[in-house]
Amino acid sequence: MYDVLVAGAGMAGCVAARAAAEKGKRVLLVEKRPQIGGNCYDCYDSYGVLIHPYGPHIFHTDREEVREFLSRFTGWKDFRHKVVARTGEGLIPVPFNLNTLHQVFGPEAERMERKLTEIFGEGSKVSILTLMKQDDPDLQRIGEYVYQNIYLKYTMKQWGKKPEELDPSVTSRVPVRIARDDGYFTNRYQGLPADGFTPMFQNMVQHPLITVWVNTAMEDVAEVRENRIWLQGEPFEGQVIFTGALDEFFGCRYGRLPYRTLEFEFLHQDVPDYQGHSVVNYTVSEKFTRITEFKHLTGQECPGTTICREYPKDYKGTEGEIPYYVIENEENRRLYSRYLQEAQKIQGVHVLGRLAEYKYYDMDAIAERALQLIRQLIS
What we know:
alpha+beta
């Protein structure tokens, strides 16, 4: 009855399902959670506050095709995300930029700004490790400050590892911006779906050729026999797009791929404003990494407010845990490649997404990957 089986109804799965259906393919989309949307799922809590149960999500992109595709299923609320970090200097803008420089270093900042601009250029980004390796003591001080007050302890909380144990790609996500811009993202398009992420995904999968089964894992309907997929006891001749954790697809036969997961603590406050910002990072104190106050994110007006504290920890694969972040290093990539080789042996199976590809992706990049994959499969 189906031409395409999609496992997982997050951004990757929903975009792939819709794109395939619009090419005339009959799609079965299965999702093991009771709702679609993946980690982007949003809903109203018991106090009537729109929250993101799996952590805050903001859509941002320069990809015109992705923006146009998603805009068919939602309007947009413009939102320029600004994050602050609580340090000894109070709340400072992050990523570290020229505004942060002047707040932290006061009268010395003008001299430091000139040096940054002369050496690296106005509007550029420079990594903290590059600054720490400079001969100039002022530049070293900037790099050391960012390392100690924004990067070091936050990284150890987030990843459970020392910085030197992580792949350099993680360090590169903590730049110093030589610009007066407190925005967390620099993309042309930034915002949230006007009515929420969940309605956007619901509209996306509303298509006569898409069948959605929630509370249904891949293994509930399909199995691998003789290097091919069998769907509900019959050999499946179509394409399979798998967006889940690839090691778990194979029963972790070569060992479990390391991930970091999150525990969320949601608290309702009977005050109109708790912290004045959508996200405050706790980079030098507390066991949690950040607090999100959702009404600043969504623009919702209501008398009370709901906040969420995030506590990272190692993913063990226990009931209820969700793998959020891949831990990128050479050893883990080698282990992942063994699972990828197994997947490539199975007729018609394609991996897509953060978990299936064991790679960090932003939402727009994953949507683009999904559109590209469907074009490749259905030409």
